């Protein structure tokens, strides 16, 4: 199997009721036969990076929110960045956007154009994501830097669905909790 999902967005579909992923947009940072890993892009937390992980605050704007990256290792920090030189990234997701390796020297930090910090990440074991895609739990579209670093993360899910075209207009208007319909 190829890594065709790396660099794509997973957009939660109406059939996905897992509260960890309801109405989320997930960037797949790496995907192969061993599984997939990514981060939820549209769940800013009520805490700033400076408050939660002060050593990483210099990588982001003042008062930048920490994001909930997913249910795996929520106490761990994951740094997603856009680089002037993608070779600095530990893992390249697409183009010049990738994940910072655990150890970064000051010279490499200079290659960071902008960054976002996530608490935890999302992960799928071998075949798990493929099974969820086969069940139509997720919609797929290529990611863009504008998706990753949106100034309005709470509107990302709706915006990405809109980009998929009029076929998905009904999905956008559904309530978060279908029992309220």
What does the model show?
By secondary structure, this protein is an alpha+beta fold. Helices cover 18% and strands 36% of the residues. The termini are far apart.
How do you describe this structure in short?
With 181 residues, the chain is of the alpha+beta class. 18% of the residues lie in helices and 36% in strands. The longest helix is centred in the C-terminal third of the chain and has 8 residues, at 156-163.
List keywords for this structure.
globular, 181 residues, alpha+beta, 36% strand, 18% helix, single chain, 10-stranded mixed β-sheet
Low-pLDDT residue spans: none
Mean pLDDT: 91
Shape verdict: globular
Distance between the termini: 40 Å
State the helix count.
6
Q: Helicity, in percent?
A: 10-25%
Rounded to the nearest angstrom, the radius of gyration is 16 Å
What about the largest sheet? 10 strands, mixed
> Element order, helices and strands?
EEEEHEEEEHEHEHHH
| Count of individual beta strands | 10
Structural class: alpha+beta
Q: Roughly what fraction of the amino acids lie in strands?
A: 35-45%
What order do the helices and strands come in, and which of them pair?
Layout: E1 8-12, E2 25-32, E3 35-40, E4 44-48, H1 49-52, E5 65-68, E6 72-83, E7 91-94, E8 97-99, H2 106-109, E9 112-124, H3 128-134, E10 138-142, H4 145-148, H5 156-163, H6 169-173
Parallel strand pairs: 5-9
Antiparallel strand pairs: 1-2, 1-10, 2-3, 3-9, 4-5, 6-8, 6-9, 7-8
């Amino acid at each position: 199997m190829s890594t065709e999902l790396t660099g794509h967005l997973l957009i939660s579909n109406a059939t996905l009721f897992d509260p960890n992923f309801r109405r989320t947009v997930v960037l797949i940072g790496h995907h192969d036969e061993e599984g997939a890993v990514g981060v939820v892009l549209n769940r800013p937390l009520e805490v700033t990076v400076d408050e939660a992980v002060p050593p990483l605050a210099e990588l982001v704007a003042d008062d930048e929110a920490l994001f909930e990256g997913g249910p795996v290792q929520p106490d761990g920090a994951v740094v997603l960045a856009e680089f002037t030189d993608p070779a600095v990234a530990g893992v390249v997701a697409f183009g010049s956007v990738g994940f910072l390796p655990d150890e970064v020297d000051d010279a490499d930090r200079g290659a960071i154009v902008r960054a976002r910090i996530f608490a935890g990440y999302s992960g799928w074991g071998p075949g798990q994501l493929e099974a969820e895609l086969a069940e139509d739990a997720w919609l797929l579209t290529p990611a863009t830097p504008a998706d990753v670093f949106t100034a309005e993360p709470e509107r990302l899910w709706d915006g990405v669905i809109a980009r998929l075209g009029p076929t998905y207009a009904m999905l956008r208007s559904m309530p978060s909790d279908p029992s309220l319909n």
